[in-house]
Specification:
alpha/beta; five-stranded mixed beta sheet; two-stranded parallel sheet
Length: 196
C-alpha cells in the first residue's frame, strides 16, 4: 500500500540516512521492518562503520550526474529506489549498496500531509522513535524536526487552507529495551480501534 515514509538514522550529531520509501510506511510495515533489524540483525559496530563510510549524494556533481544517468538508463541502484524503504538498513550493514552514496530526503519529514510515517534510529541517544504525519500542531524547538519549520507548507484543497507541520513523535523505545511485536503495535492502537 502506498504509505509514504522515511527511514532515518542519526549518528554522531548528524543525519546519516534519510531514505524515502513509497510503500507500507505504517507500523505493521516499515515500522516492523526497522524493529526486526534492530532486534535481530543489527551489529551496532559494523552498522556504524558501514554507515560512516556512506555519503549523501549531491546530484549536481559529476558523480551525481553519472549515477543519475545510469539509474535512468536502468542500472539498478537500490539505495536510490523508492521501493527499498527500511531494507536499506540491511544493505548498509552488509555493504550491499551499489554506490557509496545515499539519498538525503530529510526535508520530506516537513511535509506531514504526504510523509505519513518516519522511523528514526538515534544511535547517539540509543533510541528507536516513531513519527506520524498529518500533524496540524506546531512543533516546539525541543522537537526533533523543528529545524524544518521553514519547509512546512499550507495546502489548499477545495478552498480550505490547511497547515501541516513536520511529523511528530508518537512513541520511543530504548535500543537496550526494544518492545515485542505486540508491545510495538499496541503503542499505535487508539481507543477508537476498540470501537467496532
Amino acid at each position: 500500500m502506498g504509505t509514504r515514509n522515511l527511514t532515518i538514522v542519526f549518528m554522531n550529531g548528524e543525519y546519516h540516512l534519510a531514505q524515502y520509501g513509497q510503500w507500507d510506511g505504517y507500523p505493521e510495515g516499515q515500522g516492523m521492518t526497522c524493529l526486526e533489524f534492530l532486534r535481530n540483525e543489527m551489529d551496532e559496530q559494523e552498522f556504524r562503520c558501514a554507515l560512516s563510510s556512506m555519503r549523501f549524494i549531491d546530484w549536481n556533481t559529476n558523480v551525481g550526474a553519472r549515477i543519475l544517468e545510469a539509474f535512468n538508463n536502468g542500472v539498478p541502484f537500490p539505495e536510490f529506489d523508492r521501493d527499498t524503504g527500511a531494507e536499506i538498513l540491511w544493505m548498509i550493514q552488509n555493504c550491499q549498496t551499489t554506490s557509496r552514496y545515499l539519498r538525503n530526503d530529510i526535508e520530506f519529514a516537513a511535509a506531514s500531509l504526504f510523509c505519513e510515517w518516519a522511523w528514526v534510529i538515534d544511535l547517539d541517544k540509543r533510541t528507536f522513535e516513531a513519527y506520524e504525519g498529518y500533524n496540524k500542531t506546531p512543533l516546539t524547538p525541543e522537537d526533533r524536526f523543528h529545524f524544518l519549520v521553514d519547509k512546512e507548507e499550507t495546502y489548499h484543497d477545495s478552498g480550505i487552507d490547511e497547515e501541516y507541520h513536520a511529523v511528530r513523535m508518537v512513541a520511543s523505545w530504548s535500543l537496550d529495551d526494544l518492545p515485542t511485536d505486540e508491545q510495538f503495535l499496541a503503542a499505535f492502537k487508539s481507543d477508537d480501534d476498540d470501537d467496532g
